[in-house]
Amino acid sequence: MLKNITGALLVLLLVACHSVTPQGYDVIIRNGLLFDGSGEPGQRTDIAISGDKITRIGDLGKATAVIDLDAFNQVVAPGFVNMLSWAPVTLIHDGRGLSDIKQGVTLELFGEGNSMGPNNEITRMIAQERINKGPYPYEIEWTTLGEYLQYMEDKGISPNIASFVGATTVRVNSLGFEDRAPNPQELKVMQNEVRVAMEEGAMGLGSALIYAPAFYAKTEELIALAKVVGEYDGMYISHMRSEGNRLLESVDELITIAREANVDAEIYHLKASGRSNWHKMDQVFNKVEAARAEGLKITADMYTYPAGSTGLDASMPPWVQEGGYDAWADRLKNPEIRARVLAEMRQDTNEWENLFYAAGSDGILLAYFQNPELRQYSGKTLGEVAALRGSTPADTVIDLVIEDGTRVQTIYFLMSDENIIKQFSYPWLSFGSDAGAFDPVVASQMGTTHPRAYGNFVRVIGKYVRDEKALSMAEAIRKLSSLPTRNLKVPLRGMLKSGYYADVVIFNPATVTDHATFADAHRLASGVNHVFVNGVQVLKDGEHTGATPGRFIKGPGYKGKNK
């Protein structure tokens, strides 16, 4: 009897001690205005992290932690998602992903048409030769897309990463750069490559249809590949065939692919390009809303600038580019072919996306050159460079592509600020930079770039929420976090909830600002003070800690052991 009473007293004593002993955590963030990513208004509260997960939200009182942050006068939000990132190569060279981490980005999505795998022996050799000539040389140490993504996690990266398998990549593996449809056997090989990628963790299928050789793919080919993605509950995401003269027809094509393949579909960087097409944006909205009412899950992402960035290949007809760069450059040296290309560049057309005509020579800003002798032109308009060289703008485009040995990275001013504001009002629209993740000290040595690489995400908060009041803070954070993770079907990310992975950004809403401009692009954003990825602090008081806790985030079809 005495033994039982003693045992009971001991239990009561332990319970009493536990109730007054502060619980220890790895991280406590106190007094912040917390927006959980749901779109609901923020609340002033505390959040605790243990290991890689959020373990408690609420008043934490006297609880202790290894890292104890006071976030008074700051917003605490889920980490931001970059739905269109071109950082797969820059992260090989510098895993910090500085320009994006400084904006609160904790998940990077790759795969706009081209992906880092799968590679067969021929395409691997071609790619390695091209890579060795570029600004960021590296060795291809993988064959499949899943192997690349795991290689990156093992190497060490600050943000989480995920990827779509590129429709262009699987096409080139089977057809090279030919302008033709795949035969039945080739299509089966392409479908199997998509299937393997999905089981390795790809998010879905990504296409970029204004560029050769992707331009050569017919709708039926894309449906056949997207059907494989549908088997794994993945997404079809596309830089559509046109964002200009055939914008509406291209939206119809994307919706048709979604319907026929039974997949969710997203429009990459939604826009109406060229002044004569700006009025079409309302019709685009109507088409997407009608498809959604039909039961199709159609979404889109955007960047927050009136200019896009791609190569000078988008200033020339796709037919001249068949066979890849070397064949393209050789054709341009033929006087008769050159004359035909020049004539087509100067004409408006519905047959291909002519950004030379749409932007005009003064609306084309030359960004990056591989040839050091041409880097004097970086940051100048095409019109200015043509005048300096004593040539016409169209001739200058052709000459620069030949002399540089690349498609020449270029900025095209094409969009309407009014349409950008309109897009914010649609609840199915998230954000992507369509850019790499850079260290400005290194990147600035190679020429200029689009400012979206340094400012796209903080621009949403600073310019469009705080300054222009185009959307609320709660809605902006939802679009930056839980909307894309739900579209991607990524579990336990994109919100601040107990049990979710601790991807957290803390910023000052009064000071968060993008500083990069078209004239001075390599400038890091400010106002984001702390960033955690999987519970590890990668940004502290605005400075990168050097930590690389990023992970390979698997898609819904992943067949491996761990998600």
Q: Give the count of helical stretches.
A: 20
Q: Tell me the major beta sheet.
A: 9 strands, mixed
**Extended strand count:** 21
Instruction: Give the helix level as a range of percent.
Output: 25-40%
Could you tell me how far the N terminus lies from the C terminus, measured between alpha carbons in angstroms? 52 Å
This entry's quaternary arrangement is single chain
- Give the radius of gyration: 25 Å
Computed structural class = alpha/beta
Broad shape: globular
Low-confidence stretches: 1-21
Strand content: 15-25%
Mean pLDDT over the full residue set: 95
Could you please describe the fold and organization of this structure?
The chain has 563 residues and is an alpha/beta fold. It is built from 20 helices and 21 strands. Strands 1, 2, 3, 4, 5, 18, 19, 20 and 21 form a nine-stranded mixed β-sheet that branches. Strands 9-10-11-12-13-17 form a six-stranded parallel β-sheet, sandwiched between helices. A hairpin with a 2-residue loop joins strand 20 (536-540) and strand 21 (543-544). Helix 8 (219-231) crosses helix 9. It is globular. The protein starts with a helix and ends in a 19-residue tail after the last strand. Residues 1-21 have low confidence and may be disordered.
Structure characteristics:
nine-stranded mixed beta sheet, 21 strands, globular, alpha/beta, 563 residues, six-stranded parallel beta sheet, disordered N terminus
Structure at a glance:
By secondary structure, this protein is α/β, with parallel strands linked by helices.
